[in-house]
Amino acid sequence: MSGIIQLLPDHVANQIAAGEVVQRPASVVKELVENAVDAKATEIKLIVKDAGKTLIQVIDNGLGMNVTDARLCFERHATSKIRHAEDLFALHTKGFRGEALASIAAVAHVELKTKQDQEELGIHIIIEGSKLVTQEVAVLPKGTSFLVKNLFFNIPARRNFLKSDNVELKHIIDEFERVALAHPAISFTMISNGSEVFNLPSSNYRQRIVNIFGGKTNEKLVPVAEETEILKISGFVGKPEFAKKNRSEQFFLVNNRFIRSPFLHHAIMNAYDGLLRDNNQPSYFLYLEVPPHTIDINIHPTKTEVKFDDEQALYAILRSTVKHSLGMFNVAPVLDFERDATLDVPYDYKNKTSSTPLIQVDSTFNPFATETETKRYSGSSASYAKSTPSQPHWESLYTDLKQDTFEVSTTSFENEVVASKLFDETQVESQTLMYQFNRKYIIKSMKSGLLVIHQNRAHQRILYEQFLTNITVHQASSQQLLFPLEIQFSREEMMYLKEIQPNLEGIGFAFEKMGFDEVVISGLPAQILDTEVNAILHDLIYNLQENLPEDSFSLSDSISKFMAKSVAVKSGKYLNTIELENLVNGLFACKDPNVSPFNKPIFITLTTEDLDKRF
């Protein structure tokens, strides 16, 4: 009788391994670009089509491979980075497991072209689903070109679980930015569907950040630098006034490798304590260098989660360094016990000698003395007393009390019509019909009882239907600005903004210019203030990045919901009587006044019977 345990075939084992390494097209991009960095390339070019589902190609001018290495790199656990187990604790390269290329070749069509500098000819290999199709020599330039087509062609279930092209492209850009930030000395280029997304020349850390996130980023950065025995910190943090509501500009790069660390992130937030508005996140681009033996990067397949030997020390150093930088550049208030700037002597008075002021005091002056007594005094006080009119004796102030106080009643006044009620009947009626409770609810009386309305959700419903109608018919009124607004975006954000531009124009936005990283807005919807545009558009793009709908109606619906939520009157705002009436009338003019755009109840009714039951 044969046993029930058996070894898996190689192609099945590779597909299982691919489930850990290759989760989406961005995983392929990460592995191939990191391999190009390890190959000591100075120029790396990434080409994607249909968000990597159809094509991913990485071209570099690195060392290249010979025939043996080119064939062996697709085998499992084949790596040039590790020889002994101890090497795991002294890693200076990106990839080291030797599973990436084998996993990619198991779920895609892979084409490899590579050549070393000292060789005359290169090697061209084609592999489909872990099976070698062709292997031949070819005339090639120095370096390596990996071409991955039809990802997950043999695993349809995995392909169906991929998100839309916009979402997958966002993940690819995220991986590309992380590697590009870690290696500013390398030139990077990214092309998506024939259009150039990034063209990053070789530069320093600061310039690389500016090239990726836009020209205005330079004025937001505060340099950070510190070196100790266990940690070296360099990089930049953002000024508190430029903080965002999302975490799109937060990067920890440990030994030139991007990592996620909630623990270290908490240290940054602690350093910004008291400087940020609620729910805002600071930007930071921090490069940390630690001894390789004090960090374990082999605890997660994607190598983005690491384990430090002494996390508490790193926390304290990072927190104090960031706090010191914010204070040193006058971003945060600091205490300086050595000098008080308010006591500095102005330049005009530094060479002048001080003079003692002359003060004359009349010790005989009595402010309560009578006129005759005052005349006897000599000096300045006497002359002053002569010039002032004579004052009666202080006892005369109380002579009027001897008179009959009831004589005031004989004084005649103008006849006035005295109202019998404090308020007009119409005013009292309007106030009893509708009023605002706790600056959150609107209470309106009805014949059958009371109507309690949630003011924020009611306004959301009104604005949602207005925005959705305007996007559909493109007849929204636009409020023209006297001075157009210039708003900066990153390259990635501009891609999404250009895609939703027709929908925003339907709402009432008027775009005068759309550049690579800048937008000029000349008109706004009537419901939006010019001071709110920057935050609203950035938050809108961030929310759409995670799940950008593919069909136009779902996109219009998502934009209308977000805009209504952002612009709607918030709880805690006072509304006068006219505003209350307009809000209630507008709510019951909607097609569906019962629930908000997010399916939450807008109002409840309390009938007379319900109130009677309470008593």
Automatic annotation (TrEMBL):
CDD domains: HATPase_MutL-MLH-PMS-like (cd16926), MutL_Trans (cd00782). It comes from Flavobacterium bernardetii. This protein is involved in the repair of mismatches in DNA. It is required for dam-dependent methyl-directed DNA mismatch repair. May act as a 'molecular matchmaker', a protein that promotes the formation of a stable complex between two or more DNA-binding proteins in an ATP-dependent manner without itself being part of a final effector complex. The gene is mutL. HAMAP family: DNA_mis_repair. This is DNA mismatch repair protein MutL. InterPro entries: DNA_mismatch_repair_CS, DNA_mismatch_repair_MutL, DNA_mismatch_S5_2-like, HATPase_C_sf, MutL/Mlh/PMS, MutL/Mlh/Pms-like, MutL_C, MutL_C_dimsub. It comes from the Bacteria. GO terms for molecular function: endonuclease activity. Residues 209-327 form the DNA mismatch repair protein S5 domain. Pfam families: DNA_mis_repair, HATPase_c_3, MutL_C. Keywords: DNA damage, DNA repair, Endonuclease, Hydrolase, Nuclease. The keyword DNA damage applies. The keyword Repeat does not apply. Belongs to the DNA mismatch repair MutL/HexB family.
